[in-house]
Write a structure and sequence with these properties.
228 residues; alpha/beta; TIM Barrel; eight-stranded parallel barrel; 11 helices; binds the ligand Cc1ncc(COP(=O)(O)OP(=O)(O)O)c(N)n1; binds 4-methyl-5-hydroxyethylthiazole phosphate; binds magnesium ion; magnesium ion binding; ThiamineP_synth_sf; metal-binding
């Protein structure tokens, strides 16, 4: 698909609704690619490979294996590591972009490094960070990852929890499509959608699921039912 700006990037509305962020430890004893394959069968619309313990080589191998498991069905991103994204792309893997946080490489330089066709996601959790994202040139960032909605042990250094009400307050000044993240369960999905989220991002809700396909289907149904 070709976007209005001539790039090959899809509209974020198409891939943000049910966004899986992987955690290698939480997936165990399943492999991450096996978990991802099951979750995509259940309807996950985007996958981000996140492994804070992996070095560059191991993260590259994991990203390439996940991309093979996804086989082009949904976008595949990597957390933090622009170099690993570029290496996977150079090796021929079907990978689509990178998600960076406030302490990672600056988003404008990331866009310059990855080019116009890659997806670039950015974390933002305060009005100041929303304002800074709004000031970036159009097309720099595709979407914002907004959280933590709830406290979560998956990311011990997460910013102060917003709560669904805090998330809703931020949405009134959202400069870009926003995916909600942090401790999200099926009960949160409809309220977050009504608050203006373009999607929900989950780690433990799918990585620790007994039946990841069924859990993905349940989350996606909650998203569809939550349409106001
Ligand atoms: C979709 C999405 N949103 C937010 C984050 C958090 O990114 P970051 O702030 O860089 O923190 P780490 O994930 O690197 O610990 C994310 N990864 N994905
Ligand atoms: C990566 C990230 N960024 C903010 S909270 C979080 C972790 C979310 O994990 P979980 O869905 O298990 O609470
Ligand atoms: Mg990061």
């Amino acid at each position: 698909m070709v976007a209005q700006d001539g790039s090959a990037r899809q509209s974020p509305a198409s891939y943000l609704p049910l966004y899986l962020v992987t955690d290698t430890v939480l997936c165990s004893p399943r492999s991450v690619p096996d978990l991802v394959a099951l979750a995509v069968e259940g309807g996950v619309t985007c996958v981000q490979v996140r492994d804070k313990r992996a070095g560059g080589r191991d993260l590259l191998d994991l990203l390439v294996a996940v991309a093979a498991a996804v086989d082009g069905r949904v976008p595949v991103l990597v957390d933090d590591r622009v170099d690993v994204y570029l290496a996977a792309l150079a090796g021929g893997a079907r990978v689509h972009g990178v998600h960076v946080g406030q302490s990672d490489l600056p988003a404008d330089l990331v866009r310059t490094m990855v080019g116009p066709d890659a997806v670039v996601g950015l974390s933002a959790a305060t009005p100041g960070q929303f304002g800074a994202a709004a000031d970036l040139p159009a097309g720099t960032v595709d979407y914002l990852g907004v959280g933590a909605v709830h406290a979560t042990t998956t990311k011990p250094d997460h910013p102060a929890p917003l709560g669904v009400d805090g998330f809703a307050g931020l949405m009134t000044s959202a400069p870009l499509p926003c995916v909600a993240i942090g401790g999200i369960t099926a009960d949160d999905v409809a309220p977050l959608r009504r608050a203006g989220a373009a999607g929900i991002a989950v780690v433990s809700a799918l990585c620790t699921a007994v039946d990841p396909s069924a859990s993905a289907r349940d989350l996606l149904r909650a998203w569809q039912d939550g349409r106001s």
